[in-house]
Design a protein that fits this description.
The structure holds 2 protein chains of 2 kinds. Chain A is α+β, with helices and mostly antiparallel strands. Chain A folds into 3 domains: about 120 residues, Butyryl-Coa Dehydrogenase, subunit A, domain 1 (Orthogonal Bundle); about 100 residues, Butyryl-CoA Dehydrogenase, subunit A, domain 2 (Beta Barrel); about 140 residues, Up-down Bundle (Butyryl-CoA Dehydrogenase, subunit A, domain 3), CATH 1.20.140.10. Chain A is built from 11 helices and 9 strands. In chain A, strands 1, 2, 3, 4, 5, 6 and 7 form a 7-stranded mixed β-sheet that branches. In chain A, strands 8-9 form a two-stranded antiparallel ribbon. The N terminus of chain A is likely disordered. Chain B is of the alpha+beta class. Among the domains of chain B are: about 120 residues, Butyryl-CoA Dehydrogenase, subunit A, domain 2 (Beta Barrel); about 130 residues, Butyryl-CoA Dehydrogenase, subunit A, domain 3. In chain B, the strands form 2 sheets. A 4-stranded mixed β-sheet of chain B has the order 1-4-5-8. Chain B has a 4-stranded antiparallel β-sheet with strand order 2-3-7-6, with no helix packed on it. In chain B, helix 1 crosses helix 3, helix 4 packs across helix 6 and helix 7 runs parallel beside helix 9. In chain B, about 45% of the residues are buried. The N terminus of chain B is likely disordered. Classes of the chains: A alpha+beta, B alpha+beta. Chains A and B meet through helix 7, strand 9, helix 8, helix 9 and helix 11 of A and helix 7, helix 8, helix 9 and helix 11 of B.
Amino acid sequence: MSQGNASEMPSLLYSEDEEELRAAVRALLDDRAGWPEVLAKTETDEPYDTALWRRLAADVGCAGLLIPESQGGAGASYREAAVVAEEVGRSVAPVPYLGSAVVATAALLEAADSALLKDLASGTVTAALAVPFATGPFATGPFADGPPAAWPSAKGPLTGMRVAAPQAGDPAGQTRLRGTVAGVADALPADVLLVAADGVPPGLYAVNAGAPGLTVTPVVSLDATRQLADLTLDDVPARCVASGPVAVRSVQAALAAGAAMLAAEQLGMAQRCLDMTVAYLKERHQFARPVGSFQALKHRLADVWVAITQARSAARYAAACLASGDPDAPVAVALAKASCSEVAVHAAQECVQLHGGIGFTWEHPAHLYLKRAKSSSIGFGTPDWHRAALADLAGLPAAGRPR
Amino acid sequence: MLENTGLENTGPDNAGPDNAGPGDTGQAGTTNAVGLRERVREFLAGHDPATLPRPEFLRARFDAGLAWVHYPAGLGGMGLPRALQSVVDAAFAAAGAPSNNPERIGIGLGMAAPTILAFGSDEQKERWLRPLWTGEEVWCQLFSEPGAGSDLAGLATRAALEAESGNQWEVSGQKVWTSSAHAAQWGLLLARTDPDVPKHQGLTYFACEMTGPGVEVRPLRQLTGEAEFNEVFLTRAVIPDSDRIGAVGEGWRVAQGTLMNERVSIGGAALPREGGMIGSAARTWRDQPELRTPGLHDRMLRLWADAEVARLAGERLRQQLAAGQPGPEGSAAKLVFARLNQEISGFEVELAGPAGLRYSDWSFRRPESVSFYGRDVGYRYLRARGNSIEGGTSEILRNIIAERVLGLPTEPRVDTGVPWKDLPR
């Protein structure tokens, strides 16, 4: 238990630069992703707002936050990336920030694919890691004892994707992939898919969105602001980005970053749900009083606020640990995702309930937050999944297990 | 202590004396850690802790401005930022110097001193702060009454100016949940001086000598079996007007300052991972695999995660204070601390199984010190019930958060616009 001690504690506050970045992102999202626009977008055939994403990615520079300046990025860290994620969560904007600027970028940084990183940094190319959104990071288990021979995960192989036989005329270095991946987040607007394939050794491959044999099928998703897609690869040509231990580390880094930054998103969602509900309870009158003056409701909102103070500390700690490469990062990520998942769902449920009838309507934005919060609590590992990881990390074994 | 803070308590974001910026009284060369260490070294060269008697050493340390460096010069400090205090404490501890046993005089240091500093006269500061800091005079707090818990401003202890002398107050009433009263020389007393005005306006703040006539201290037995606290009966106790703190009728404002400091001190010290109650539960979990069940495992992990996140939140709070950005998160920390202590200790009793059916000692006695540790799980479980009552109930804290932090409207009030004497009781 030497880690996480006060002497080594990183700053859990927001720096001035981070607050400036927040203000820039919020200004754009307030202007372009008000909830009526977000709601309207979910009922179109193009649920992702690619125009807004371009502004956020290139103009504000969010696409290349994590990418070093030498590769065209901003050379910032997960601390700044988390602030952007908070704002994206606050607006539930339908942009592939998490999938492209965080998850795919983290994988490519680990794989050191500078060509693709340069494209991502410029905002001209959007990428997604083709794993089920529900996949949790696998910091523990077999990976703790060294890189495994196959993708480790709680329930068998990661994707079931296989390397297929080459075809006549295939250039050297090209591979073909065959298989399916269900429920991938941020794949719909992606130009490049990073596909993890099982095999010996395991590999991470880049597939162009327009490649022959690739089918990307939109899924009617619980969260329409982050619509999932099912991928079918039928001998699709692919380029190997990393193989063996590097590939495993790339996917691991991507999933850990995804979980931590999704936790920051959840923090933003929770704060917005609280703000929205507080504002409504001050203005809504019943029994000739603002309903916010009733103690039964005040206490519920006070509890949401308290929970957010806790979640914010966990989210900041995870971002700081990832930013500095702290060895405590696996604990920090598990704590943040477990904590922020539950707080966001709690806040969104309270938002619906305390708005009363209007909160149950389609026209009110509360349901956008409820659905995003509930879906996000499953994304990159449920709270239960992350607590199970803590059992290993903190040395608290289950019943019937020694150690 | 088990004092309940009232609904109307000051918001946690009010700046108290501790949040005031450093004054210009800082002496050259002592405004940074290196300079302070040097100053402590010089002091120790002239005051050998091994040979000087403890009280004398502590008085000299106070007079050298090395007691609490964020206090003004001449009152034990140097007007430096509060964060530098830890440098001084560490330097004295490293030299093996005697301390003032801060845990023994917590109310004096944490509540009385900031109140005296903010509201006391120059004579009062001169008279009280030095023996308070050295521990020669212990302080307690006479706020709560049997009829005034959460509604502190409704208290009924009466203080009346003696007609013939005109400079002495006669005080009668009953106070409750007073820790340290049996060891104290002084009590911070809030009493009603005018029952004919609305309740907040008729209060006045005093320092009450606990050893004088008319002050009777009785131990108050609590549900753990022992008596950490006292009841204090005041029967025509006499307080000189020179021991009044703040103006007549200003007692509520002064008390808010005291309570604000209580909240700040509840934030607690920095702890390592598993440094709190969760550490004891985790050790039992590791040491006794035969106690584990799947249901308890889930609870163990939830509590471990919640406790670690609460620890991080405490760190964040300290960072905010150190950066001069005190936020309202302190009241959240108190709520979470109470809930976690209760859940963890309840879990521990269940985890212990048959051993959880035993209890160490029900005898009516005064504990030497109050600590969750080194005691059995049953004691922790029972004592933790008080955590959501003492220092402001969790319900009152939620009101404060809802109104002060979130800005939600107050409940309609029937008790603020009428004379105190006309309120139903």
